TrEMBL record, chain A:
Species in which this protein is naturally found: Arabidopsis arenosa
Keywords: DNA-binding, Nucleus, Transcription, Transcription regulation
Record's signal peptide: none
Listed name of the protein: BHLH domain-containing protein
Domain of life: Eukaryota
TrEMBL record, chain B:
Organism of origin: Arabidopsis arenosa
Entries under PANTHER family matching the protein: TRANSCRIPTION FACTOR IBH1, TRANSCRIPTION FACTOR IBH1-LIKE 1
UniProt keyword Cytoplasm, yes or no: no
InterPro entries: bHLH_AtIBH1-like (IPR044549), HLH_DNA-bd_sf (IPR036638), IBH1-like (IPR044660), IBH1_N (IPR059002)
Domain IBH1-like N-terminal, chain residue ranges per copy: 18-78
Example of a GO biological process term: regulation of DNA-templated transcription
Record key words, sorted: Nucleus, Transcription, Transcription regulation
Gene Ontology MF term list: protein dimerization activity; transcription cis-regulatory region binding
Keyword Nucleus (UniProt): yes
Compartments (UniProt record): Nucleus
A GO cellular-component term linked to this record: nucleus
Major localization class: nucleus
Descriptive protein name: IBH1-like N-terminal domain-containing protein
Length: 401, 161
């Protein structure tokens, strides 16, 4: 859509040279009517939602702007016209009817804001299932937020214009003020351009600002709340700043608090603790204590067995891991005979067999290693008097519970 | 051990995987210094064992698929003058780079202070945004506790009683 908007801008700007503005504009309404007809005659932009998705991938439609551009060359260039034309680039954002309503409202046909929003919401609600709904959702969202914003703002277009000038320079900060004056339209055309390049969920389209929402009703706020569920993006909540920065901040805050809750479950003894600071201190202390424990245990390990006769050590370790101490001596005797044999076979082949025994329990696991040596090992166990299961692969590692 | 939270994946392998890796690294230690059964400085030995513990933990916990494990492995490989090979991983999560973090220090100084301390603790924490840091910390804590369990078992098994 952004490339389309850009294309449209280019095409709109070219006629400036060809057709000097000889005719004063009789009125934007007439021009828009003819312009609209041109659109319809062109076969129209597909303003239905399924065409939205198809539009983006469809190269054929790229020709449309060219046609449009040539048609538009017939019109005298005017800043207002440029703005109007640019507005039409947002056909993809919603239904064409929405755009018409936009045009009508900005053309001075007053509409009560409540009705206006209801209509758009109905039309956009039907499109909620579509994948490319971002724009539509933003549209509606913007309108409702605009409504809520404007309800708080005092009147005065001059004040609004100044504000809009600021916001346009900043990009799309969400300080929306409704404007009825035409001098704002040039600003809008800039914003319309930038719109295509915005990021999705933080910015709102300035296209909404020219919509004259003369009457702000509370129903709009309710409507915005009800539509929250269908959207993926972050919205400005009621009574909170809609600055894009603060929106991003809030998203980030929520992420962090969500993860902190997760950490709270992880760290033992943090259920009663409330508050981020204390919680974080607890987490830090816990990590530090774990690291200290590892260091301490490694010291102990190095002290326990100064002669790193590793094969024996690992075997014993294996055994120790499988049984938590009580049956340890028995296993020792059982394991010593195969010890030397196993050390020859290259004990440290990665086999899951022994390691499965580490699962704290005395359950038997299948040994997948030692295929060739299996019977030998079993044979050795026979010598020690344990009752091997030839079928059971874990014969050599049996533990008496 | 499946994590209940589907958004944040902090699954950690079972204890046996950790034990396997740890024992492997210990055996490597053994084969590296076959004659140095009892080096003079026990501190070196402790350090080696500790290093082996961390490296094995990093490998067991998923190799290079976690930020902290990657940093750990890279650090260890640098010490050994080796290089770590990173397999291509799909970027499910993107995190902001540290340059952005510098700018945004106005955010909740309480949280940021703690995050700074956490970054010093968790390996590889320097380049992470706070939310990503929390994820990594959670996974790191799980792995640390697993490693502690393994080592405890080892020590218990080896202690002459």
């Amino acid at each position: 859509m952004d490339e389309f908007a850009a294309k449209k801008k280019d095409l709109v700007n070219t006629p400036v040279d060809l057709y000097p503005p000889e005719n004063p504009m009789s009125g934007p309404s007439q021009m828009m009517d003819s312009f609209r007809e041109t659109l319809w005659n062109d076969g129209g932009f597909n303003v239905h939602t399924d065409a939205d998705t198809s539009f983006r991938g469809n190269n054929n439609i790229d020709h449309r702007p060219l046609e449009m551009g040539w048609n538009m060359a017939q019109f005298p260039a005017d800043s207002g016209f440029i703005e109007r034309a640019a507005k039409f680039s947002f056909f993809g954002c919603g239904s064409f009817s929405e755009m018409m309503m936009n045009q009508q409202s900005s053309l001075g046909v007053p509409e009560s804001t409540g009705l206006f929003l209801q209509d758009t919401q109905i039309s956009s609600g039907s499109k909620l299932d579509n994948g490319s709904l971002k724009d539509a959702s933003k549209l509606v969202k913007d309108r409702s937020i605009n409504a809520s914003e404007d309800s708080q703002s005092s009147g005065g277009n001059g004040h609004d214009d100044a504000k809009c000038g600021d916001t346009s320079s900043k990009g799309f900060n969400c300080k929306k003020r409704k404007r009825i004056g035409k001098d704002s339209e040039t600003n809008q055309s800039h914003r319309v351009e930038q719109c295509g390049e915005e990021q999705e969920n933080k910015k709102q389209k300035e296209e909404q600002s020219p919509n004259s929402n003369a009457n702000k009703t509370n129903s709009e706020k309710q409507a915005s709340d009800s539509l929250k569920d269908g959207y993926i993006h972050m919205r400005a909540r009621r009574g909170q700043a809609t600055n894009s920065h603060s929106l991003a901040e809030r998203v980030r805050r929520e992420k962090i608090s969500e993860r902190m809750k997760f950490l709270q479950d992880l760290v033992p003894g943090c259920d009663k603790v409330t508050g981020k600071a204390v919680m974080l201190d607890e987490i830090i202390n816990y990590v530090q204590s774990l690291q200290c424990q590892i260091e301490f245990l490694s010291m102990k390990l190095s002290a326990v067995n100064p002669v790193l006769d590793f094969n024996l050590e690992s075997l014993l370790a294996k055994d120790a891991l499988q049984s938590s101490a009580p049956t340890f001596p028995q296993n020792m005797s059982m394991l010593y005979p195969p010890l030397s044999y196993l050390s020859q076979t290259g004990f440290m082949q990665p086999n899951l067999s022994s390691m499965t025994l580490l699962n704290g329990g005395l359950k038997r696991q299948e040994i997948h290693g030692y295929e060739s040596d299996h019977h030998n090992v079993v044979h050795m166990n026979n010598e020690t008097g344990t009752a091997p299961d030839h079928e059971d692969a874990t014969a050599d590692m049996k533990v008496e519970p | 051990m499946a994590s209940a939270d589907k958004l944040i994946n902090t699954d950690v392998p079972e204890k046996d995987v950790f034990a396997l890796h740890f024992l492997q690294s210990l055996s490597n230690l053994r084969t590296q210094n076959p004659l140095l059964n009892s080096p003079d400085k026990s501190i070196d030995r402790v350090k080696k064992i500790k290093n082996a513990a961390y490296v094995s933990m990093a490998r067991a916990a998923g190799g290079t698929s976690r930020l902290w494990s990657r940093a750990l492995l890279r650090r260890a490989a640098k010490d050994d003058n080796k290089s770590v090979r990173f397999s291509r991983r799909k970027r499910k999560v993107t995190w902001k780079i540290s340059s952005k973090r510098r700018r945004s220090n106005q955010r909740a100084p309480v949280v940021e202070e703690a995050a700074e301390r956490l970054r010093n603790l968790v390996p590889g924490g320097g380049g992470m945004e706070t939310s990503k840091l929390m994820e990594e910390t959670a996974h790191y804590i799980k792995c640390l506790s697993m490693q502690v369990k393994v080592m405890q078992c080892l020590v218990d098994g080896l202690s002459p009683n």
